[in-house]
Design a protein that fits this description.
There is one protein chain. By secondary structure, the protein is an alpha+beta fold. It contains 3 helices and 5 strands; from the N terminus they run E-H-E-H-E-H-E-E. The chain has a single domain, classed as 2-Layer Sandwich (Alpha-Beta Plaits), CATH 3.30.70.2920. Strands 2-3-1-4-5 form a 5-stranded antiparallel beta sheet, with helices on one face. Strand 4 (about 90-95) and strand 5 form a beta hairpin. The model has no long low-confidence stretch (mean pLDDT about 95).
């Protein structure tokens, strides 16, 4: 079973991808060895509904992170904290398996 994080950001797709690139460069030991990071995309209707369900607005982009090494010492909570450090606490929503905020 894969472990996936679904993320929503209030930043536009281009800005989100720039931040993700910065994270992968500054934490190269994590990507792709520990985690696989997918590029940001525009939201689908499903994404918009899900972000709204968690009172996250405005959601302007979404991206996914997959745990590549299940024995990683850098757990999903640490990953969520890292994302908040780069995006800002109020500018990113991190969900475990689409339904549990981290």
């Amino acid at each position: 079973m894969s472990i996936d994080l679904t993320c929503y950001s209030s930043t536009e797709v281009n800005e989100t991808n720039a931040l993700l690139q910065k994270i992968t460069i500054e934490h190269s030991w994590l990507f792709p060895h520990e985690y696989l990071l997918r590029s940001a995309e525009l939201l689908t209707a499903f994404d918009e509904e899900l972000a709204t369900e968690f009172n996250f607005s405005p959601a302007n982009s979404t991206f996914r992170i997959h745990l590549n090494n299940k024995s990683s010492e850098f757990g999903i909570t640490k990953m969520a904290d890292l994302l908040r450090e780069y995006f800002g606490r109020e500018r990113v929503l991190v969900l475990f398996e689409y339904d549990e905020p981290i």
